[in-house]
Write a structure and sequence with these properties.
5 helices, two-stranded parallel sheet, 14% strand, 3-stranded antiparallel beta sheet, 163 residues, single chain
Length: 163
């Protein structure tokens, strides 16, 4: 049984879960964490290394810096479409945004803006997989699984100003 591991940050304690393949879930402070169906347990040495990498990357991102290294990410619980989108989100540079429509076009599915939004909302590793950088076409924030306050805060940390 995988147990949650807390990551202390200046913005609160996040909750991380690891599988045998890497970081599988990250939950915001003061939110109930989810227990996804994970595939295997990490070794003790992997867990220790991945926890340190996650802690460093998360704290770098929460201070407005691009992380030097990410832990291995286990996104295997997503559908093929979700996994493809989540990989694409990792390519959005710090301090930049993409719209749901832009991402739909990049993925070759120009009418899939809603599906992009749904896939962002099910991102199991927010902040590190930066779904907060996805905004509505009208320059507004759009939705966010962590809630509008977290999205606003994360965008402000990256000096992204929206309408």
């Amino acid at each position: 049984m995988t147990f949650p591991h807390h990551i202390i940050t200046p913005l609160g304690n996040f909750c991380a879960l690891y599988s045998a393949h890497g970081l599988a879930s990250l939950d915001f402070p003061n939110q109930s964490y989810t227990l996804p169906e994970l595939f295997g347990e990490p070794t003790e040495s992997d867990l220790k290394k991945w926890q340190a990498q996650t802690e460093t990357a998360l704290n770098e991102m929460l201070s407005g810096k691009a992380p030097k290294q990410l832990p291995p990410l286990d996104i295997s619980t997503g559908t093929e479409f979700q996994r493809t989108l989540w990989q694409q989100l990792l390519a959005i540079p710090l301090g930049r945004t993409r719209t749901y429509g832009e991402l739909a076009a990049i993925l070759g599915k120009p009418s899939a803006s809603r599906a992009i939004g749904m896939a962002c909302g099910t991102n199991p590793i927010p902040v590190i997989i930066p779904c907060h950088r996805v905004v509505a076409a009208n320059g507004r924030m759009g939705g966010f699984g962590g809630g509008p306050e977290w999205k606003r805060r994360l965008l402000q940390i990256e000096s992204i100003l929206l309408a």
